[in-house]
Design goal:
The complex is a heterodimer of chains A (114) and B (110). Chain A has 114 residues and is mostly beta strands. Chain A is built from no helices and eleven strands. Chain B contains no helices and eleven strands. In chain B, strands 2, 4, 5, 9, 10 and 11 form a six-stranded mixed β-sheet that branches. A five-stranded antiparallel β-sheet of chain B has the order 1-3-8-7-6, with no helix packed on it. Chain B is mostly beta strands and 110 residues long. Classes of the chains: A mainly beta (114), B mainly beta (110).
Chain lengths: 114, 110
């Protein structure tokens, strides 16, 4: 079983719909992140969380919200999806105890907004 | 991230040939991470560099960190089809997260 699991793997939705992407981890890490990947732009950080009560905006948080339901779960919501949110979304985790920022990634969710 | 520039954007290499990818930062680096991604899949950690002048190798992949230039290079020797994919560098700017370059797409031709 994967250590960082993202659901769904693929999703097609329509403009204006609310959608939630979910991430769960069994690594016991305290930090969790949501990134999106667009061709030619690499990975851009949407939100990150250092523990259940600590949520921080990344460089492109507009149009997104997150919820850290438990240490192991971090979900990303698009309240009203728009076509330019079509992208590959990644959840990642890291362990503060190592003192490093080494990230462990899920397999990604390909989201298409029509 | 605009602070992190990767070059080239893409490259095609003949199987058995060497290749080099560069990652240059406009800010002070506290750590530099290399990841590999197969098309449409997640990122796999390759190597982490923390000190200027540090060099690490794993199988046929070598990464170096030049502290003066704030630059890292990833070198693959005698490339194989398994080396094809997207290579991304991630920078630790001492702000508790990683900022990524745009990635380099590597194609290996038989």
């Amino acid at each position: 079983d994967a250590d960082v699991t993202q659901t769904p793997r693929n999703r097609i939705t329509k403009t204006g719909k609310r959608i939630m992407l979910e991430c769960s981890q069994t690594k016991g890490h305290d930090r969790m992140y949501w990134y999106r990947q667009d061709p030619g732009l690499g990975l851009r950080l949407i939100y990150y969380s250092f523990d259940v009560k600590d949520i921080n905006k990344g460089e492109i948080s507009d149009g997104y919200s997150v919820s850290r339901q438990a240490q192991a779960k971090f979900s990303l919501s698009l309240e009203s999806a728009i076509p330019n949110q079509t992208a590959l979304y990644f959840c990642a985790t890291s362990d503060r105890r190592t003192g490093w920022e080494k990230l462990f990634f899920g397999s990604g969710t390909q989201l298409s907004v029509l | 991230s605009q602070e992190l520039e990767q070059s080239p954007q893409s490259l095609i290499v003949q199987e058995g040939k060497n290749l080099t990818i560069n990652c240059t930062s406009s800010k002070t680096l506290y750590g530099l991470y290399w990841y590999k991604q197969k098309y449409g899949e997640g990122l796999i950690f390759l190597m982490m560099l923390q000190k200027g002048g540090e060099e690490k190798s794993h199988e046929k992949i070598t990464a170096k960190l030049d502290e003066k230039k704030q630059q890292s290079s990833l070198h693959i020797t005698a490339s194989q089809p398994s080396h094809a994919g997207i290579y991304l560098c991630g920078a630790d700017f001492n702000d508790y997260k990683l900022s990524f370059g745009a990635g380099t797409t590597v194609t290996v031709r038989a």
